[in-house]
Amino acid sequence: MGRVSVWQKWRSYFTEVSLMKTASELNPNLELKLVKGQFQLCTENAIYSYGLKYDNFDSAFELIPWSTLAVKKALVLGLGTGSIMELIERKYKQMIEFDCVEYDREVITIFDEWVKPKLSSKILLIQEDAFDFCKQNKKKYDLICVDLFLDSWVPDQFETIEFLEFLKSQLNPEAILIFNRLADRENELKKNEFFVRTKFSKVFTQYDILKLDTNWMFFNRTLKKN
Fold first, then answer.
1. Is position 2 within any domain?
2. Which of 31, 33, 76, 203 could be a cystine partner for 100, CB 3.0 to 4.6 Å?
3. Measured between alpha carbons, how far is 146 from 132 in angstroms, rounded to an integer?
4. What CA–CA distance (Å, rounded) separates 40 from 17?
């Protein structure tokens, strides 16, 4: 199990602390850092996760009516260092079962060694392409979180109506889908507008979008915003 010393944690509040560097066929540059006391998994051009400071999903989770939704089982597509599970368990105090799909074995290894031992939730890790998994999966969930990136882009197969239909078929009644997309450049904003107009709105007619500074979070239905 990966361990962080008291000195490393203290130092991380003043400067980034590199804990390890590795590579895989999918991600030739992977670095695990400690930043302000939180694990941050980075590629050359993107941050895959950032512990309890993974603000895009944190902001999305703030809109979920946890007390009435009664989430018992969730599907997480894209692992990183498990920020989604960590936020749900530690900040939102929800003990639920997770199926987590991640294609990169190296990312799974990092999560297994550094983060999973600190969580109490029941987590099933599945090494598989998320499209292939959703194509054959028959389970249904109360919450589905899509956080699928290869470095800083979303592979084309995850932007299809077919993939969105797979997701829709695996949602329980009243369940919530959250789909994370980048939005910090002009071309990404245009892609998001095209995605919602030609794909997302066709599958989820009552959709909602939380527009943050660097990400757009797509929901399968409207949610009350503060």
1. no
2. 76
3. 14
4. 10
pTM (global) more than 0.90? yes
Q: Provide the pairing of β-strand 141-146 with 171-182.
A: parallel
The parent domain of residue 70 ranges over: 51-219
Contacts of residue 176, Cβ cutoff 8 Å, sequence gap at least 6: 64, 69, 142, 143, 144, 219, 220, 221, 223
Task: Quick: pLDDT tens for 9-35.
Answer: 999 999 999 999 999 988 899 999 999
Is 86 a member of any domain?
yes
Write a three-state SS string for the chain. CCCCCHHHHHHHCCCCEEEEEECCCCCCCEEEEEECCEEEEECCCCEEECHHHCHHHHHHHCCCCHHHHCCCEEEEECCCCCHHHHHHHHHCCCCCEEEEEECCHHHHHHHHHHCHHHCCCEEEEEECCHHHHHHHCCCCEEEEEECCCECCECCHHHHCHHHHHHHHHCEEEEEEEEEEEECCCHHHHHHHHHHHHHHHHHHCCCCEEEECCCEEEEECCCCCCC
Q: State the CATH number of the domain containing residue 62.
A: 3.40.50.150
The C-alpha atoms of residue 96 and residue 73 are separated, in whole angstroms, by 6
In tens, the pLDDT along 80-92 reads 999 999 999 999 9
Q: What is the pLDDT of residues 101-117, one digit of tens each?
A: 999 999 999 999 999 99
Query: What span, in angstroms and rounded, lies between the C-alpha atoms of 90 and 119?
Result: 8
Does residue 44 lie in a domain region?
A: no
